[in-house]
Amino acid sequence: MTLLDIDITGYETILLDRDGTINRQRQGDYVKIWEEFEFLPGVIETIARFSKTAKHIFIVTNQRGVGKGRMSIDALNSIHSHMIREIEKKGGRIDKIYFSIGLDHTDLTRKPNVGMWKQILTDFSDVKAETTLMIGDSDCDIEFAHNCCIDSIRVDKQNVIFIKETTE
Predict the structure, then answer these.
(1) What is the pLDDT of residues 82-141, one digit of tens each?
(2) Residues 42, 160: Cα–Cα separation, whole Å
(3) Is the N end or the C end of the chain the one with fewer CB atoms within 10 Å?
């Protein structure tokens, strides 16, 4: 199985983690500029396929590098703008990016806390937990989904396998 094999039938809203799910994670470092950003294989094509049927596609990402002062909000926004342009070139879309710059679990916006999910529900009143799927690569992503009462799929670091976890 690959990322391209993920079936989103029945899901209207897709939440995607960023580092380790969309792009290659930099071990011991952060993606601080666009030139350090590298899409993982099959991700752009998968997002383009999701875009054909999903009502909403959001990124939910912890960005501690900003909180630590290793990069600026402007740099993060620039990376996200470039990423979205590349996705759109291939027929995909990202409707909004939610991020936390919190340094630890005491920040309610930092995954696995539910602050980003609550913001999505405030911004998009038509989003429902029962038709939302979280796709991520870490325990934190799966715990976030569990805390939000939404289904999740965990992909490995190379996006080549997945395990589905449901809220049932």
Answers:
(1) 999 999 999 999 999 999 999 999 999 999 999 999 999 999 999 999 999 999 999 999
(2) 9
(3) C
* Bridge partner list, 164: 153
CB 90 within 8 A of CB 48: yes
The continuous run of DSSP H or E covering 148 comes out as helix 139-148
Residues listed for the chain: 168
DSSP annotation string for 36-89: G--BPTTHHHHHHHHHHH-SEEEEEEE-HHHHTTSS-HHHHHHHHHHHHHHHHH
Catalytically annotated residues? 17, 19
Per-residue tokens: 48: 């383009």
* d(C-alpha 156, C-alpha 28), whole Å: 18
Residue 39, pLDDT above cutoff 60: yes
